[in-house]
Amino acid sequence: MNDVNQQLTTSFNALSAKIVLAGALMLAATAVTAQSTSFDTCIKGLRQSVVSQGITAAVFDRATAGIEPDPDVLKAFSFQPEFRTAIWDYLAGLVDQERVDDGRAKLKEWSKVLAEAEQKYGVDRNVIVAVWGVESNYGRIQGKREIVRSLTTLICADKRQAFFRGELLATLRILQSGDIPQEALVGSWAGAFGQTQFMPTTYQRLAVDFDGDGRRDIVGSVPDALGSTANFLKQAGWITGQPWGVEVQIPANYSGPSGRRTKQSLAQWKSLGIKALSSVSLPDSTQAALLLPAGAQGPAFLVFRNFDAIYSYNAAESYALAIAHLSDRLKGGATFKTAWPTDDAGTSRAERREIQQALLNRGYDIGEVDGLIGAKSREAISEFQKSSGLVVNGRAGQQVLKALRAPVSTRAPKVGG
Ligand code: CA
Fold first, then answer.
1. For residue 271, what pLDDT is reported?
2. Which residue in 98, 109, 116, 135 is the catalytic one?
3. Centroid of ligand 1 to alpha carbon of 180 (angstroms)
4. DSSP assigned state of 184
5. Radius of gyration from C-alpha coordinates of the chain
6. 135 catalytic, yes or no?
7. Could you read off the pLDDT of 194-216 as tens digits, one per residue?
């Protein structure tokens, strides 16, 4: 091929590449325009709808000025975790010594407010503080997404429309009342916000002004957050003075009823050979359910009405158990007497940070050392497990921690030859 031909071929290829690129850009541009047009149309429709429900146009316009959909929210909405977190991993991170120590400091710091909340709502202060600790790490992690933007993104992408429309309306009512300024209305991708992580409709039903400044501010006011949590639990049916439950021992080969919804009296459970591992001063007629979070081989619990009250905060048994157990630990209670059925127990947040730091020191990319085991950390752990001959599962468990604590083997210089 001569030079001219070579040049022609090159220019032709370059040209076709440009055409393809231009086509792709045009398509992309069309897609973006179509998306923003439909988003704008959707926002206009929402404006009409909320104004007919008592929100002023000025409040809506201010709340949605310059708004654009948030693609991360849609990703979060359709995210399917690739594996389920084992209950012992979940609890080891949520109820670790750090959260117990922090919680005890908060119990002291806010003792006056907590005494008032206990007095007014009849809810155990240790449970109020445990909810606070699990929901937002005592106010430290409240989420960073703008609520109005997240909710409009979900509504306009047709995700659970009725539900998120209700949440948007409740959010706009918060703005209209002036209880919380818009810049403070940030939270999870789904719209939960504040130190108590209430959804906006929950806020409207149950948040209280507990510091008496005339505003219900669960973002900036600790007393409002604690009072609102107590009020939530009271409305959820909290029975004053009753424990949430008790760890029990079940007979070997137990195959009787279990599950949160299967309730029978303490007397009936006793007749099945189930024994409380600490004293319970409740009448034999008290209704209880048997929880076996890791099957018959792991810790077992009889739970009472107050466990259901905690459960209604966030409908997951593992979540309710974390709060219940943290509240016991705050009171000075011990860890569970029965071990989890695993040979690779979970790690605390301090241990997770240690794992991350050790991986970083060995040259693995784990992102930030934050004690949160995300996709990057799991990948690095898997690689490390593979190179160390461990079971590859990406878990930040005790076995990985132990292996990482072993000194890094340095190759001895070759002597002689
Ligand atoms: Ca207030």
1. 97
2. 135
3. 10
4. G
5. 27
6. yes
7. 999 999 999 999 999 999 999 99
User: What angle (nearest 5°) sits at the alpha carbon of residue 321, between those of residues 314 and 373?
Assistant: 80
Alpha-helical (H) ranges within 52-121 are 57-64, 71-78, 87-94, 97-109, 111-121
Q: Which residue did the predictor score with more confidence, 137 or 11?
A: 137
Residues whose CB falls within 8 Å of the CB of residue 383, separated by 6 or more in sequence, listed in order = 364
- Element containing residue 404 per DSSP (H, E): helix 398-405
- The pTM of this model reads 0.87
- Backbone torsions φ then ψ of 100, nearest 5 degrees: -70, -50
Cα-to-centroid distance, 226 and ligand 1 (Å): 11
CA–centroid distance for 200 within its chain: 17
For ligand 1, the distance from its centroid to the CA atom of residue 179, given in whole angstroms, is 8
At a CB cut-off of 8 Å and minimum separation 6, what does 394 contact?
83, 378, 379, 381, 382, 385
State in Å: Cα 233 to ligand 1 middle: 19
CB atoms within 10 A of CB 316: 11
The type of residue at 75 is K
Provide the total of helices (H) and of strands (E) in the chain, helices listed first.
17, 7
Opening angle at CA 147, ends 42 and 238, nearest 5: 125
